[in-house]
Amino acid sequence: MKKRIIVAVTFVFLALVLAVPAILSVKKYADAKAASQLVSPFEPYDMVHVLLYGYDRDTVSGRIMLYARDGSLIANVERSWNADALMLEYAEVSFDQQNYCFPYRICTNTSGRNRGLRLASYFLDDKECLLCGQRTGQNIKRQYYAIALYASARLLPFFYSQRSIHTVSLSVCTPGTEYEIRFLQDGSASIMPVAR
């Protein structure tokens, strides 16, 4: 009798542990899918800027800047990484053949799988997507928030087919030169020096 109770409690506990992440993932997907019916993907713009200061043995130092559509700076991350090279990962989610791309994380050639500086906390705030810019209405910012939250979430494997993580190598960046990264409508990215 005691064994049955222990088995039953263990089963219920495991079911809850597995059910909660599944329910949260389904909710994020449903919210993002509904939001995609109301807003189109961003037109390509220079969302991310990168300025590498230099390399020193096994260290790369630089600055990552995130910009809103209206050109306002929303985040400025300046630091050093213990690595030989940096990469920018961006998340792409597709709904009804429309691609929504968002900065995902900065990682290094030495960081392990699923490691790096996650960027969503710099542009998702108070249930709004700051990438929209200051002149965008709150409702639109909330729709993009739902899509970006889903794009940047830790998902169960079932949802991996709904999202792609792409990598842009920052090894093409010359130290001292600022570069802009644009996420294009087809889900690809371009990197080029900032025109001054």
What's the quaternary structure here?
A: single chain
The number of E-state strands comes to: 11
Q: Please outline the major beta sheet.
A: 5 strands, antiparallel
User: What structural class is derived from the secondary structure elements?
Assistant: alpha+beta
Rounded to an integer in angstroms, the radius of gyration calculated over CA atoms is 19 Å
Sequence stretches where pLDDT stays below 50 over 5 or more residues: none
Q: What do the pLDDT scores average to?
A: 87
Summarize the structure.
With 196 residues, the protein is α+β, with helices and mostly antiparallel strands. It has three helices and eleven strands, in the order αββββββαββαβββ.
List the helices and strands and how they pair.
Blueprint: H1 2-36, E1 46-56, E2 59-67, E3 73-82, E4 86-95, E5 98-108, E6 117-118, H2 120-123, E7 124-125, E8 128-129, H3 138-152, E9 163-169, E10 178-183, E11 189-193
Antiparallel strand pairs: 1-2, 1-10, 2-3, 4-5, 4-9, 5-6, 7-8, 10-11
Question: Main attributes?
Answer:
38% strand, 5-stranded antiparallel sheet, 3 helices, 196 residues, alpha+beta, globular
What report would you give on this structure?
- With 196 residues, this protein is α+β, with helices and mostly antiparallel strands.
- It has one domain.
- 28% of the residues lie in helices and 38% in strands.
- The chain has helices at residues 2-36, 120-123, 138-152; strands spanning 46-56, 59-67, 73-82, 86-95, 98-108, 117-118, 124-125, 128-129, 163-169, 178-183, 189-193.
- The strands form 3 sheets. Strands 3-2-1-10-11 form a 5-stranded antiparallel beta sheet, with no helix packed on it. A 4-stranded antiparallel beta sheet has the order 6-5-4-9.
- Strand 5 and strand 6 form a beta hairpin.
- Helix 1 (2-36) crosses helix 3.
- It is globular and about 75 Å long.
- The termini are far apart.
